[in-house]
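ERR on first pass: missing label on line 2. Operator R.T. fixed the label and resubmitted. Corrected input:
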Amino acid sequence: MAKVSVGLRGWRFDEEEIFTDDEELKPLDEIPEEPRERLVRLVGLVEEPCDVCYLEHGEDEIHRCNQAEIVYGEPKGEVLLCPEHERDLLYWFREEGGSEHAGTLEFADRFHEWVAAGNEAPEGYGSVEHVDEDPDGLPDLPDQQDIQERVEQDFDGDRIDILELAGESNDEGDELDEDDLGDVDLSTDYPSNR
Ligand SMILES: [Zn+2]
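pass 2 clean. output:
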């Protein structure tokens, strides 16, 4: 079964679980719960900054952060990274005990603590292996923006669920438009060790 990434590199989905034979995204209620949770979570993550950039620059200088392109970890315990900072996560994961936290919701917190303590991958780490990552290659995918819009559309009447999945509550309970969804503030999921 082919594995595909959607929106951000990292999380992999079984192609058959989320796409029809025509490479259309399946209706969300036909997608198994676990991949659906990650898919919906992704909608709230694709516009977010890299965690390491965010730790470096903070909310006040968020414009200096690179937008995340990579996601690792479990939904709600995930780490978002730009290509520049992916090697820090890889180094922490492989050499600094990060793999012990794989599969847990503490994964992101532990990595953030490591970064916040001033750690980073040594000079040159990961610069070679990065090239041949994903040797199988990605199959052609429908436009990823299109996928995101479809996910949002499918949940049109059910926006509160999206916000809950994104770890954000909407106390006002008013309907949200597309722009609001794009601006969902996930900062509560950012480092807990400020
Ligand atoms: Zn970064």
